[in-house]
Each structure stands twice: as C-alpha cells, then as structure tokens.
TrEMBL record:
Main function: Accessory subunit of the mitochondrial membrane respiratory chain NADH dehydrogenase (Complex I), that is believed not to be involved in catalysis. Complex I functions in the transfer of electrons from NADH to the respiratory chain. The immediate electron acceptor for the enzyme is believed to be ubiquinone.
Gene3D superfamilies: Glutaredoxin
Topology in the lipid bilayer: Peripheral membrane protein
UniProt similarity note: Belongs to the complex I NDUFA2 subunit family.
Listed name of the protein: Ribosomal protein/NADH dehydrogenase domain-containing protein
Subcellular location: Mitochondrion inner membrane
SUPFAM superfamilies: Thioredoxin-like
InterPro entries documented for this protein: NADH_Ub_cplx-1_asu_su-2, Ribosomal_mL43/mS25/NADH_DH, Thioredoxin-like_sf
Lineage of producing organism: Eukaryota, Fungi, Dikarya, Ascomycota, Pezizomycotina
GO cellular component: mitochondrial inner membrane
Ribosomal protein/NADH dehydrogenase domain sequence ranges: 20-73
C-alpha cells in the first residue's frame, strides 16, 4: 500500500491539539477536515486523536514504539 498518508508501523498514535475558535488554528482545522478520512482509511489500526481546547497553539504529537514521543508546533 503506498500513499501520501500511509504511516510507518513504528507510529502507534497521532494526536492533534488545536483551538476550535481561534484564527491561528484555521489551517489545522482545514487540514483535518480534508485529510482525516484519508489518513484513517489508510491507517485503520493507528489511533488518530483530535483534541480541541480554548486558546492553545496548534501542535501534533506522535507516539512511537517503546513510549517515545515527539511534538511539533504547527
């Protein structure tokens, strides 16, 4: 299976954090609306979590094997 949103088997969880109302989260909301169905279709066994909270900066967290976690500001 090849595709733009096929994740590595080492990736165990993907979490998106963003604000549901602020302008600085518009891009991530738009991306998730468009890309979430495709990501979930290509990675049915990988949890993809979306967390909304007031006034937080958009970030993504990736959890890998052995509990290793990486964070990136969006």
């Amino acid at each position: 299976m090849s595709g733009k949103y096929v994740f590595s088997k080492a990736l165990k969880e993907l979490r998106f954090h963003h604000c549901q109302t602020s302008d600085h989260s518009n891009a991530i909301r738009s991306f998730l609306t468009r890309a979430y169905p495709t990501m979930k279709h290509h990675n049915p066994h990988t949890p993809i979590l979306i967390r909304e909270a007031m006034n937080i900066q958009p970030r993504v967290f990736a959890r890998y094997e052995f509990g290793k976690e990486k964070m990136a500001d969006l």
